[in-house]
Amino acid sequence: MTSAERMMKALWSAWWQRWPRRVAWATMLWAVSYAGFGLVCALRGTSLPYHGGGSGTPWLGWAVVAVGALATLASGGVVRYGLRPGLRVLLWVACGLAGITAFSLLMDVITLMLGQGVDSRASAANKALAAVGAVLLAATARSDRRSAGTAVREPSAAPQLVQLAAWAGTLTFLPYAAMKLVWASGGTFAGITGEELLAVSERNGASGIFLTLESWGLDPTALLAALGIFLLWGLVRPWGQIFPRWTLLLRGRRVPRWLPLAPALLGAATLAPYGVVGVGYLALATADVVTMRRGDFHSSGDALLVGWIGMVAFAVYGIALTIAARSYWVRSRPACPMSVNTE
Question: Is Metal-binding included in the keywords of this UniProt record (predicted)?
């Protein structure tokens, strides 16, 4: 080992030794800022969640203050006393509450990518801040699990059951993508033509990029579904097998584990509950327990058909993504040096 390599190893070791305290400080700064954001919203009467109109619920700003205060207490305790078992519990509780608050952030991101404005800027900002906080709180709760002496595991494929879940998530997205491509190519499905849906998109303020892709017969949501499937298989198979030249492009360096995990966790936390709740509502609508609104479709039956195709795809894919992300998390986490195969 050269002197430069020894110096880099020493610097890396020193950085990791300071990691628990640094991430705790970052979490505490976020918690104070998040509590301040909630306080401003509460005092100004700003409604954070958006329910399509109405007087809103400004009291939820105080709920944000409570989550921020809890996170401040827990992370401040870690800064002062280190990561104690009781503080770890508080961190995970705050992390769970922040994760629930960040629900549907992915939908806001997709809406912005398609050039349409979000329903509520305050609500979107709250979800984004909560998502950042959930990551920081989880990192703080697990900060003592990392050390400079750990080693990266070799890339490996997921167990067979996890790969079967990935196949299920892939196959259920195919009808959704096909339906979207039929409309994008000018065809008719569920009693509505592609031209009618394009007019609806224009009326809803779709971006020029969205409308251009539609005119080329490429539906942006179908393209996002393809990217989602690519991500799903990247979690269950080594990246070099998904994209054979990936290793060459990276010049032998492995894909950082956070790079696929970040969008996977965001997608799983949004699509799985969104799809499962949607399937439950559609089941009630099919049984005539609730009334299915027809929206932009010509009949409730048409809206119900499209709803089943979309919600089943979101539910199964979201569950598959959750399983795949969990498997990738376990398979890619650092291993103790004694457990690494040196043969």
Answer: no
